[in-house]
Amino acid sequence: MEKIRVIITNKQKAVKIPTGMRMLVRRCCNAVLRMEKFPYSAEISVTFVDNDQIQELNREYRGKDMPTDVLSFPMGENGVYDENHTTGAKILGDIVISVPKAVEQAKRYGHSFEREMGYLTAHSMLHLLGYDHENGGIERVHMREKEELVMSMLGLPASSAYTFGDESR
């Protein structure tokens, strides 16, 4: 596998980021790229924000004036990505995670904060690689299967059967 660079920035103060969370996010990005057999070096930016910050981004970029759990900003289309001319890495895009929303959802779904953050990272990474669930149907099921496969690879399996109750999933 080529070199993977995950740039993580914490722009929120609502939730203390536990030791090891940054490593988990990096491992998750790597696991998705390995699973998808991504053949290039890659760069991914991950930013931790609070609910107000993600609501502002959601309103600005998606026209939805509400906080969401994660936003993906792909830099590629149809397998063609911008490239970092210094390193030659493909720039996959940006992942923005609302940490307070992740805490809330972990409680709601009855699993750990680590699993929720890993899930949101895997979900968003698949979006950066061109997967979409917005139209539902088989694409949604296929994406969910890939997310759960990554969670199992990382030792973070679901504590119960998954549901499609959340709009973002």
Quantity of strands, as a count: 6
Mean pLDDT, as a whole number? 90
Cα-atom radius of gyration:
15 Å
Report how far the terminal alpha carbons are from each other. Answer: 29 Å
Order of helices and strands: EHEHEEEEHHH
Bulk shape: globular
- Quaternary structure type: single chain
CATH 2nd-level architecture: 3-Layer(aba) Sandwich
Overview of this protein structure:
With 169 residues, this protein is α/β, with parallel strands linked by helices. The protein has one domain: Metalloproteases ("zincins"), catalytic domain (Collagenase (Catalytic Domain)), CATH 3.40.390.30. It has 5 helices and 6 strands, in the order βαβαββββααα. Strands 1, 2, 3, 4, 5 and 6 form a 6-stranded mixed β-sheet that branches. Helix 3 packs across helix 4 and helix 4 crosses helix 5. The longest helix is centred in the C-terminal third of the chain and has 17 residues.
Short description:
The protein is globular. The protein contains 5 helices and 6 strands. The protein has helices spanning 21-35, 51-62, 99-109, 113-128, 137-153, and strands at 4-10, 42-49, 70-74, 76-77, 80-83, 90-98.
Give the arrangement of secondary structure elements.
Elements lengths: L3 E7 L10 H15 L6 E8 L1 H12 L7 E5 L1 E2 L2 E4 L6 E9 H11 L3 H16 L8 H17 L16
Helix pairs in contact: 1-4, 1-5, 3-4, 4-5
For the structure shown, list the relevant keywords.
alpha/beta, 169 residues, Collagenase (Catalytic Domain), 42% helix, six-stranded mixed sheet, disordered C terminus
